[in-house]
Amino acid sequence: MRKQKKYNKKLVIGLTGNFGSGKSTVAGLFRELGAYVIDADKLARKAVSPGAKAYNKIVKVFGKAILRKNGHIDRVRLAGRVFCDRKALVSLNSIIHPEVIRAIKEKISASKYRIILLDVPLLIESGLSRISDKVIVVKASANTIARRLSGKRGFSIQEIKDRTKNQMPIRDKLRLADFVIDNNRSFKNTSVQVEKIRRKLWKS
Questions:
Q1: Cα gap 162→81, rounded to integer Å
Q2: Fewer Cβ in 10 A, N or C end of the chain?
Q3: Closest by alpha carbon to 124, among 73, 64, 173, 186?
């Protein structure tokens, strides 16, 4: 059972799901319904920008070969290193996660919004589910994920498998969910599911 840390008069909702399940789409729908969305991926990109604390640690661990000519970390090159090497991924996460978690907590505390949604791929693995009042898991079949990622974002099947295998199995995430959104069908169908959850959590 999750230990809930309450933020004064704020409803903190954790949103997660496996790679390619459509979390960003769902987060966008909740944003339209009035939620303040905190995007962990955006915070992670900021955490690894030149001059940031995590940036220096990453370059020290992985070397300058992961850098672009302008000094920024080449995220594609870095991903190629870590998603096929479990130890490298653990090392990278140990550098980035503390910075992202700190930034998320600061944003929650500073926000004037009552409804806050955390869009975090590793919500449960990072422990951020413990500060979430409710957890929503987005699910999609392997075939749906492969079709979307290979078509729109150009990922190979192997790249999808490499990223998925390093995440908690979706069945385990589903066991910890307060709400589940099935994102296998149309955008309209997903919108209807989001609205139903919104009605249970807060008034528009």
A1: 11
A2: N
A3: 173
DSSP run (H or E) holding 17: strand 11-17
Q: Quote the tokens at residue 25.
A: 């789409």
CA–CA–CA angle 46, 47, 51 (5° rounding): 95
What is the DSSP secondary structure assignment for residue 138, as one 8-state letter?
E
Cite the DSSP H helix spans in the chain: 23-32, 40-47, 53-62, 75-82, 86-110, 142-152, 157-165, 170-175, 187-201
- Name the nearest CA neighbour of 41 among 122, 157, 129: 122
Q: What angle do CA 23, 27, 28 make, to 5 degrees?
A: 120
Q: Which two tokens stand for residue 135?
A: 């957890």
CA angle 165, 156, 93 (to 5 degrees): 40
Domain residue extents for the chain: 11-201
Fold (topology level) of 11-201: Rossmann fold (3.40.50)
Using CB atoms within 10 A of its CB, is residue 199 exposed (0-12), middle (13-18) or buried (19+)?
exposed
Q: pLDDT tens, 167-203?
A: 899 999 999 999 999 999 999 999 999 999 999 999 8
